[in-house]
Automatic annotation (TrEMBL):
Belongs to the glycosyltransferase 2 family. Pfam families: Glycos_transf_2. This is Glycosyltransferase. The chain crosses the membrane at residues 6-28, 292-311, 349-371. It comes from Hymenobacter guriensis. InterPro entries: Glyco_trans_2-like, Nucleotide-diphossugar_trans. Keywords: Glycosyltransferase, Membrane, Transferase, Transmembrane, Transmembrane helix.
Length: 377
């Protein structure tokens, strides 16, 4: 039998208890929260005009898919669509200019060069925000599409709660293959954290594919000034700075307010994408790093300790019991979150995806520690 006084056994139990706390306090209550008002619900707050900003670098084919869907948004209060052409070498400029001839609310901001040492995307976004005519700003990426024609309306309602920041969810399209399922699992798990933490009053990040904030928020943080030379963080580090200066954040996570993206199609592309995203985490506030780190570390340690016990003890019954409790809890939480966010994964593969992801996460962490150089487009 596994000795109850074994330090590894006690540490394994502590890891499970930490995960059960996150499941019981953050994930399940968020998944079971009251539904948000539908787009056509009566007695909704008055809408205000909004500037929708998209930054693109050689994204012509994606823009041909995205921009018509943005122009079809049902938003009577009115919106302008600002496309920031960031040093594109394709026909992005000509395409947007043609649209602007037919749609007066389509505007083009061109970036010829990025000053030395600055993040290209942050510099491009700054120019786009400075040209915006409205006080509310809504952001997405060129490789995304809105889930419905009510996206703008539902995201803008978040400001009426009231709020200065509106944090949305962006899913990846479901395709065949294990990599696609793993990417969608990682997106769901990340969403479970930043959405439920913000819902509980601890906002720490958003995703630039579906994020809104006011011009006053951007001005209060002096734009991206604190991290303008870092490649990542045009979304999460902006949220960090804004919350630190008193900005109020709300979550809008109904499926009709989502955006959808095409996932990476190779392990290498996803590896580079995740390295860039995780690199910004070093600049998070200490409380946020502790809150996120406790959850991630408890999962990584759980698998590491389990492997050590599996190969060092002859009796696997206690270990199997701990695994069963932990697996049932996390699969229940992830299953309910997937259904609530309209991003479900087969329940039968959740335990396997969970294990693979946390070993992959450990490898990413080691990679960032050893090799910190990153590249942008």
């Amino acid at each position: 039998m596994l000795p109850l006084f074994s330090p590894l056994v006690w540490l394994l139990l502590v890891c499970v208890l930490v995960q059960l706390y996150y499941v019981g306090y953050y994930f399940l209550p968020f998944a079971r929260r009251a539904p948000e008002a539908a787009a056509d619900a009566p007695d909704q707050p008055l809408e205000e005009p909004v500037s929708v900003l998209v930054c693109a670098h050689n994204e012509l084919e994606n823009l041909r898919r995205l921009l018509p869907l943005l122009l079809q948004q049902d938003y009577p209060a009115g919106f302008e669509l600002i496309l920031v052409d960031d040093r594109s070498e394709d026909d992005t400029y000509l395409y947007v200019q043609q649209l602007a001839q037919y749609y007066p609310h389509v505007r083009l901001v061109s970036v010829g060069r990025t000053p030395e040492g600055l993040s290209p995307k942050k510099y491009a976004l700054t120019l786009g925000i400075k040209s915006a005519r409205h006080l509310r700003l809504l952001f997405t990426d060129a490789d995304c599409i809105p889930a419905t024609n009510q996206w703008i309306r539902l995201m803008q309602r978040g400001f009426a709660r009231p709020a200065d920041l509106v944090i949305g969810y962006s899913a990846y399209a479901a395709e065949t293959g294990f990599l696609n399922k793993l990417i969608r699992f990682e997106t769901l798990l990340s969403g479970a954290q930043y959405l439920s933490f913000a819902w509980r009053g601890y906002p720490y990040m958003g995703v630039g594919r579906n994020l809104a904030y006011t011009r006053a928020v951007f001005q209060s943080t002096k734009g991206f000034a604190s991290h303008i030379r870092s490649l990542g963080g045009d979304d999460d580090l902006l949220v960090q700075d804004a919350v630190q200066r008193g900005a109020r954040a709300v979550v809008v996570a109904e499926p009709a307010a989502h955006t959808l993206s095409e996932p990476a199609t190779s392990w290498g592309a996803w590896w580079r994408q995740k390295r860039r995203h995780l690199s910004a985490g070093r600049r998070y506030r200490l409380a946020d790093r502790v809150r996120i780190g406790n959850f991630m570390a408890s999962n990584v340690l759980f698998y590491g300790i389990s492997v050590a016990l599996l190969f060092s003890r002859p009796d696997w019954v206690p270990l199997a019991a701990v695994w069963l409790v932990r697996t049932a809890a996390v699969c229940t939480a992830y299953g309910q979150l997937g259904r609530r966010l309209d991003d479900p994964l087969p329940v039968g593969v959740l335990p396997f995806l969970d294990a693979v992801y946390f070993f992959y996460y450990l490898a990413l962490g080691i990679s960032l520690f050893l090799y910190r150089s990153l590249r942008w487009k």
